[in-house]
Specification:
Helix content is 40%, strand content 21%. The protein contains 27 helices and 34 strands. The chain has an eight-stranded mixed β-sheet, with no helix packed on it. A five-stranded mixed β-sheet has the order 17-18-19-21-20, covered by helices on one side. A four-stranded antiparallel β-sheet has the order 10-11-16-13, with no helix packed on it. Helix 10 (567-590) packs across helix 14 (641-658), helix 25 (828-835) packs parallel to helix 27 (867-877) and helix 26 (846-860) runs antiparallel to helix 27 (867-877). Bound molecules: zinc ion (ZN).
Length: 880
């Protein structure tokens, strides 16, 4: 017997709730093993239709008492099980239901509902965690006004927080306990409910909104870590200002709070007025965090804050609409980061992530549309497709309409749907209305899975001075979707001549914003007045999340790398040169040959490295070859991860050897004696410095290893120390062992830093790594009960270390599967997430494919696995 029943939830089965809840009064009496929860729900029938039974959701609940309009309900008139409370014949009129339950936060290892993260009580209710606190209509279209009273031992939890504004607090007379009452005037779904109780230190600041209201800003962290929350506070204030300027959105409560907790299943949660964060996305200082950590903190703080309007004020009607809040908010946080930092660098970074994760998901058995049509377990749909491709879809709406109309559409969305639980259709309709255009074909971006392929051929007619693009689009089959309809694709482009961009005119009509709109399977575009044979620069800025197939000569790519006015496509041109070399070398290696070098690619890299006008962060990205995941996806089938790794390593070594002098000089020039600053420019210098270091060390020259060793020792910030350690970790030499030991000694008391140490060792591309990781699972710094530790060690091994997870003997698969089976009974969400590492198994060469399938079948056959894990494994194995 499976502990949880399999279930299938379909979008087409949606119907409005029979009952609504106007107000919720909650009263918590916090206790580690037995917290009492009293809930008073003001219910009313949703329509005047036939009376419906009242069925409230539960999960692992114990009912203590139940009363209707103040009268205890006779046992015969209801049925309470751990996962359901049914009143077959409730009165067909508004009434009050009082429910008392008791929950055990200390034993809650799923980290859903109310649980203890170390000494801190906290909650996580999205998607379906509120039903682990009390019986409720746990669906996002039931929105209510909440008042929350929390009571606790003053010594155990001096800080008591919930959503909204603080309305009362005090001692409980005659006891050692105290209480606080919070009221949230904004209607919200229960997944946005939050509560925190504990011994926490507060960092306080304030923000004056555009209409002049004062908002108190409080960030709560473990005592002693206050200094490490200052960057998060600064990011929050910048995000609040940006949302006013870019979207006209003002904050609405008197207080905004962020709490950092050490045990959290995800990144962070946008609970109304009380965001709860994985502490890795709050805590940072020069000595403890890398530039990437700072950038992530800025982005995640902004993301959760932006949800106040896109998620909280306007929420989702049902969980199929998850991208309505997530895709849109990812788009908003990407735009924020682009405005705070370098737009080109941010865009390239976002696209690298998209290709290495979302494109890979879209090409495998877990592919699903941005808005799925069915699910078995919603926890498994917090995916890169919903988030990142969902963000790309919003970006395309902006590309199609232009910034002014896009803003009008967003404004209309905010006014039309404020306080509602909305759908993707309602969101898109706002843009259709302001632009008076038809978005019905565009909706396929929400319903069709798979990465569209766009094949382009070009024809220049020197006599007629015309240039023609013949473009064919197709979307590959994905699970459950064998055939696809053509998409609406905004393709931004330029025609680059000897002296820069040529004017763009289609039949003598200027091309608006440089974008052609693809809508048909096959289309031709004829540009007129083209005075010379141009080089096409297509999908500029990555205007659409597509795979572009354009036969283009290496010489033309080198020209674009040097001359394209679109920085994204300058970077892309070098990536394309590198990708064709890498895929050719993978094939050569598999035949037993030796990888070749590409002098043209080296020339392009050398030119960019020598160009002092370019931002260092951009140069660093150009020098970074495509990721192993990206190369494997490009090859697509019969993938041998060892050959992929070797091809990539040999390109890095060749770059280090050919450009050694320039790399060494740049490594020196980018270093600075100025005190550490986390800003984008300083981070860009360090990024370039550290890419140079890594390429130099790829040659395995003693001088280069010595350089990394020296940087490790002398670094005055975590970015440089970590980068040096990462470089050393790739080389099996005594310097590595020494540095790893030293790193542990320095930072043993700091779990977030030790996570980096665990992740780094798990990613070492050597056969001995499996034994190293196995040994680290017994290390005192590791714990299966903490998601950050598990993700750092096991997640890094499974998702980052392509050669060792995909060991040809299958031991990597077996190791990860065994651990995830052990974790599953305690924390199924995290176990299912890490098992997603198997998602590309069908693209592997036959030996590994067979081993991966055998492991997956073994996991699937365990009768007691959770719904989360079963869903992932079953879909990964499915044939369609
Ligand atoms: Zn989000």
């Amino acid at each position: 017997m499976r502990t949880e029943e399999p279930r299938t939830v379909r979008l087409t089965d949606y119907r409005p709730p029979d009952w609504l809840i106007d107000t919720v009064e909650l009263d918590f009496s916090l206790d580690a093993a037995a917290t009492k929860v009293r809930a008073k729900l003001q219910l009313k029938p949703n329509s005047t239709g036939t009376p419906a039974p009242l069925v409230l959701d539960g999960d692992d609940l114990k009912l203590v008492s139940l009363a209707l309009d103040g009268q205890p309900l006779p046992a015969a008139s209801f049925v309470a099980t751990p996962d359901k409370l049914t009143i077959a014949q409730p009165p067909h009129r508004p009434f009050q239901l009082e429910i008392e339950t008791v929950v055990d936060p200390a034993a809650n290892s799923k980290l859903m509902g109310l649980y203890k993260a170390g000494a801190t009580y906290c909650t996580q209710c999205e998607a379906e965690g509120f039903r682990r606190i009390t019986y409720f209509l746990d669906r996002p279209d039931v929105m209510a006004v909440y008042t929350t009273r929390i009571e606790a031992e003053t010594s155990e939890a001096p800080i008591l927080l919930a959503n909204g504004n603080l309305v009362a607090q005090g001692e409980v007379p005659g006891t050692t306990r105290h209480f606080a009452v919070w009221h949230d005037p904004f209607k919200k779904p229960c997944y946005l409910f939050a509560l925190v109780g504990g011994k926490l230190a507060r960092v306080a600041d304030s923000f004056t909104t555009m209409s002049g209201r004062q908002v108190a800003l409080h960030i709560y962290v473990e005592p002693g870590k206050e200094e490490r929350a200052l960057y998060a506070m600064d990011s929050l204030k910048r995000a609040m200002r940006w949302d006013e300027e870019a979207f006209g959105r003002e904050y609405d409560l008197d207080i905004f709070m962020i709490v950092a907790v050490s045990a959290f299943n995800m990144g962070a949660m946008e609970n109304k007025g009380l965001n709860i964060f994985n502490d890795k996305y709050v805590l940072a200082s020069a000595a403890t965090a890398t530039d990437a950590d700072f950038a992530h903190i800025e982005a995640v703080i902004a993301h959760e804050y932006f949800h106040n309007w896109t998620g909280d004020r306007i929420t989702c009607r049902d969980w199929f609409q998850l991208c309505l809040k997530e895709g849109l908010t990812v788009f908003r946080d990407q735009e924020f980061s682009a405005d705070q930092r370098s737009r080109a660098v941010e865009r390239i970074g976002d696209v690298r992530t998209l290709r290495s994760h979302q494109f890979v998901e879209d090409a495998g058995p877990l592919a699903h549309p941005v808005r799925p049509a069915l699910y078995h377990e919603i926890n498994n749909f917090y995916t890169t497709t919903v988030y990142d491709k969902g963000g790309e879809v919003v970006r395309m709406i902006k590309a199609l309409l232009g910034p002014a109309l896009f803003r009008q559409g967003m404004d209309l969305y905010f006014t039309r749907h404020d306080g509602e639980a909305a759908t993707v259709e309602q969101f898109v309709q706002c843009f259709a209305d302001v632009s008076r255009s038809d978005f019905s074909q565009f909706m396929r971006w929400y319903t069709q899975a798979g990465t569209p392929e766009v094949a382009v051929t070009t024809h220049y007619d020197a006599d007629a001075k015309t240039y023609r693009l013949d473009i064919a689009q197709s979307v590959p089959p994905t699970p459950g979707q064998p055939t696809k309809q053509p998409m609406v694709i905004p393709l931004a482009l330029g025609l680059v001549g000897k002296n820069g961009d040529l004017p763009l005119a289609l039949r003598d009509r200027p091309l608006e914003r440089g974008i052609v709109e693809l809508t048909q399977p096959n289309q031709s575009f004829v540009f007129t007045g083209v005075a010379e044979r141009p080089i096409p620069s297509l999908n500029r800025g990555f205007s659409a999340p597509i795979k572009l197939k354009l036969p283009i000569e290496a010489g033309d790519l080198r020209f674009l790398a040097a001359q394209d006015s679109d920085p994204f496509n300058r970077w892309q041109a070098v990536q394309s040169l590198a990708m064709s070399l890498l895929t050719a070398n993978v094939a050569t290696l598999r035949r037993g040959g030796t990888p070749r070098e590409d002098a043209g690619l080296m020339d392009a890299l050398a030119a960019i490295l020598a160009d002092a006008r370019l931002e260092p962060a951009f140069v660093a990205l150009v020098l970074t070859p495509p990721s192993e995941a990206d190369i494997a996806r490009e090859i697509g089938h019969e993938v041998d991860p060892d050959a992929v790794f070797t091809a990539r390593r040999s390109l890095r070594a060749a770059t280090g050897a050919r450009l050694g002098a320039a790399l060494g000089e740049t490594h020196e020039r980018m270093r600075t004696s100025a005190p550490y600053q986390p800003d984008a420019q300083s981070a860009g210098r360090r990024a370039l410095q550290n890419v140079c270091l890594d390429l130099l060390a790829a040659t395995r020259a003693d001088e280069a290893i010595g350089r990394a060793d020296a940087q490790y020792e002398s670094a005055d910030n975590m970015t440089d120390r970590m980068a040096a350690l990462e470089t050393l970790s790739q080389h099996d030499r005594p310097e590595r062992a020494r540095a790893l030991e030293d790193f542990y000694r320095r930072y043993a008391g700091d779990p977030l830093i030790i996570d980096k140490w665990l992740a780094l060792q798990a990613a070492i591309p050597e056969p001995a790594t499996l034994e190293r990781v196995r040994a680290l699972t017994a290390h005192p710094a590791f714990s299966m009960a903490n998601p950050n530790r598990v993700r750092s060690l096991i997640g890094s091994f499974a998702l980052v270390n392509h050669t060792q997870f995909n060991r040809v003997d299958g031991a990597g698969y077996e190791f990860v599967a065994d651990l995830m089976l052990a974790l599953d009974s305690k924390n199924p969400q995290v176990a299912a997430r890490i098992m997603g590492a198997f998602r590309s198994w069908r693209a592997l060469e036959p030996l590994r494919r067979e081993r991966a399938a055998a492991t997956l079948r073994r996991v699937a056959s365990v009768p007691t696995i959770s719904r989360d894990l079963h869903d992932i494994v079953a879909r990964t194995l499915a044939d369609n």
